[in-house]
Design a protein that fits this description.
Layout lengths: L6 H21 E4 L3 E7 L4 E2 L8 E4 L5 E6 L3 E10 L5 E12 L4 H7 L4 H18 L4 H7 L1 H16 L6 E12 L2 H51 L2 H16 L5 E4 L9 E4 L2
Antiparallel strand pairs: 1-4, 2-3, 2-5, 6-7, 7-8, 9-10
Helix pairs in contact: 3-5
Organism: Imperialibacter roseus
Protein name: Prohibitin family protein
Keywords: Membrane, Transmembrane, Transmembrane helix
Length: 274
Amino acid sequence: MENRRFVPVIVVLLIAVILLIYLSSSIFYTIRPGERAVLFYKFGKGMDKENIQMPGFHVKAPYNELFVYDVTENQVEETLDVLDRNGLSISVDVSVRFHPMFDKIGYIQETFQQDYVNRLVVPEVRSTVRQVMGRFSAEEIYSTKRPEVEGAIKSETEAVLGAEGNYIQMRALLIRSIKLPEQIGLAIENKLKQEQEALAYQFRLDREKSEAERKRIGAEGEAAANKIINSSLTDELLKMRGIEATQQLANSPNAKIVVIGSAKDGLPLILGNN
């Protein structure tokens, strides 16, 4: 009889355990590395945008709703048909890398929900690419101003995605390829080739002019040096140098023949067998 008094307690405990097991997935949850989460309190303050759930083990009321976000770097690749400044159709492949701002996922959930990539990122990237490329010609996009185009798309997309209410941090934006109509592409390539050839020809002309100028300056310098030397070669100096050379030859141990000059100031000519 005494054991029967514990039966209701055991039944209640058993039911509680079963309910706990059944609701465990709604009560206990784990946030993995690279994730953040926010809670929606159905019977309370609604979306708790300020308290971000960090990685780890957590407990919540079973009726509150949990929204988990992957905050690691994401990538979207888009192939777009855009028009240049002159209305020419261009096909461009773009890659953009981004992630949601960790502490703003509550605002993202409230505005765009977890489909923020398709609702926010993709449309804004497409719109910015079309707007920026519409300010340039096909030739500028394809060759001469490609870095400028890519930089403008990156800065403007980054500003839009990171604006108040969007809260997306863009990491990089790359233009993978640009495809023009075949005839236009060939025309631009031929024009660039001719420009390169003209630059090469101009370089050769400048180099030859520089070489000619160098030779002229060298010749003028040599002429000036000779003029100075000639002006310093007086008769007295030449006679003195001749006497010095004659003395050196006379003092040489080698056999020699000396021919005496016949002029007034003639110097002897010494001939030897060595």
